[in-house]
Structures are given as C-alpha cells and as structure tokens.
Amino acid sequence: SATTVKQILNTGRKMPLLGLGTWKSEPGKVKQAVIWALQAGYRHIDCAAIYGNEVEIGEALQETLGPGKALRREDVFITSKLWNTRHHPDDVEPSLLKTLKDLKLEYLDLYLIHWPYAFQRGDVAFPKKEDGTLLYDDIDYKLTWAAMEKLVGKGLVRAIGLSNFNSRQIDDILSVASIKPTVLQVESHPYLSQVELLAHCRDRGLVMTAYSPLGSPDRAWKHPGEPVLLDEPVLATLAKKYNKSPAQIILRWQTQRGVVTIPKSVTESRIKENIQVFDFTLEGEEMKSVTDLNKGWRYIVPMIQVGGEWVPRDAGHPHYPFNDPY
Q: Is 114 one of the annotated binding-site residues?
C-alpha cells in the first residue's frame, strides 16, 4: 500500500514519500482534511506554526492517534517549522513546546527552520516598519541550528532539517553541525524541477521535500500571465496514457525521483486522488519529459504590497536564499 513507500533519512528513520500539506488550509476545514488523509492512508502530515492551524490539526491527531484509537503515534510522521521571529537560540525550544502543545504531541518526527533569515524577535509574526516593510534580524542561522540540535538531545524531536535554504546555506550548516540536517523542504514542481539542488542534497545525505508540488494556484500575488502547470500538454498526454490526472502524474514524477511530496488539499476526493500514485511507473523517457518542463519558475516568493505594487518582500536580507543559482 501507499503507506509503506518511504524515504530513509540519514538518522535511519523512515519518512513517507507522500504527505498532506496544510499551508493555507483554513481553520474549520483543516481538522477534517487531516482526518480524511489519515483514513485514506496518509501517514505524514506537514505543519508549521505560521500556518495558524496547528491547534485544529492537534484536535484531529488527538482523535485519531494513541491507545485505543485508529493509529499509533509512531505510525504517523509529523513535521513542523520554526518561524522567522524565533531564530534567537533562547526562542527555539519555547517555540517547539508551543507547537507540541498545539498539536497535542510529545515529540515531532521532524522540525525545520522555516526560512534562513530572521525577523525581529517578538510576538508579532510579521513585524513591520511604518512604511510597511519588514523589520529583520541578522542573527546567524548557524546559532539557531545549534539550538535545534539540543531539541534532538532532549527527545522532543526525532530529526531536524531546513526549509528554503540554498545549496551554499546547506553547506554552511553542515560545516558546523554536530547533528546533520535530514531534510531540505523547498518549492519544487515540473516548472522548478530543482535538479541541481536535489543532486546537492543527495551528495550530502539530505532528503528533499517538495512543497507547492502542483504550482500553488491559490496565492494572493498570482501573476495574470503566469504559466499554469496543470494545463501543460506533456502532463495531459501522460495522464491520458495512464488513466490518471495531471496532478497524479506530477506527484508520481516527484516520488519516483525519491522526492518527498506534500500536496495540500481540504477536498476529500482530491486528498484521496493525491495518494493514488503508487500503482503505476513512468518510463525513463517520460520522467525526463516532465523534468524538461523546467523553466526555473518560482511561484513562492514572499511578496509585499508597496505603493500598490507587489514586490519581493525579503530580497534585501543578507540571508535571502533565492539570489544564489540553486
């Protein structure tokens, strides 16, 4: 079954290749989405403090995991992420403890640094100046990493990793790490195939997780003329051949290259459809035809409105990851 298809982390633990993403899954819907996913065979839920829905996800987990429930805690792989205002070493453990309390868990399977750059410390998630631009902190993510390592020692997390770091930043962490990062979570789909970054991760023993694997069509700052991934003819042809949807072709392509993938949905039929990707195999040439759709097109660049224009929000930060080639 789909639940047994896993990637082995450098800790020796296993991470299911397909998970449920929960970014933009609004409260009132996300609890049911998580329950449907677990019923459909998902054994991996991807969360983050900043998504603002961990309390509700916790309710779903409480109803489904543990003694006398449908699943044991150890059957399900749960990830969360440290937010940008919490990079100060003193803030790392309290942030994790808040997430554990919200999710009603005793430990996480994986905890990630959400972005390499920090915002000003405090309780405001997006601290801003009067002109609407963000207030940053220049704390070194290597100091944050050292605090993340302590969580493993305390048994609060089984593994730690990175999100939205580039290849140079990964190597920077590896140069000081006593506990190596296990996972890099980044945007990836056929228009941003991340071939070089995936090779970089493989060389260094990291597993790559793809977020927004279907191109994230529900973003606030969508460009009117942007390419629509799911309308791509190459995918339509393969979908017809295998009697699958274009989304399933994309998810199969990712999992077949060993990339963990976390499609987000709150619709029961789509949640079920997204995991039905382990009953067929794309041929080598077909895999290449999907990879070759790459345009270097990044859908997820945090944007901000300044004077009525959407502009990249964080591009001026010294730790901004997307100025490097990969």
A: yes
Query: Strands 183-187 and 160-163: what pairing?
Result: parallel
Measure the CA–CA gap between 259 and 61, rounded to whole angstroms.
25
Catalytic choice (51, 111, 136, 191): 51
Domain boundaries, the chain: 6-312
Confirm whether 51 is a catalytic residue.
yes
Query: Per residue in 252-269, pLDDT tens?
Result: 999 999 999 999 998 999
CATH topology of domain 6-312: TIM Barrel (3.20.20)
- Amino acid letter for position 287: M
CB distance 222 to 212 below 8 Å = no
CA 273-48-37 angle, 5° bins: 25
CA distance 64 to 3: 16
pLDDT in tens, 194-248: 999 999 999 999 999 999 999 876 666 667 777 788 889 999 999 999 999 999 9
From residue 118, give the alpha-carbon distance in Å to each of 57, 279, 306: 26, 42, 21
- Residue 158, classified by CB atoms within 10 Å of its CB into exposed (0-12), middle (13-18) or buried (19+), is buried
**Taking the complete model, does pTM exceed 0.90, yes or no?**
yes
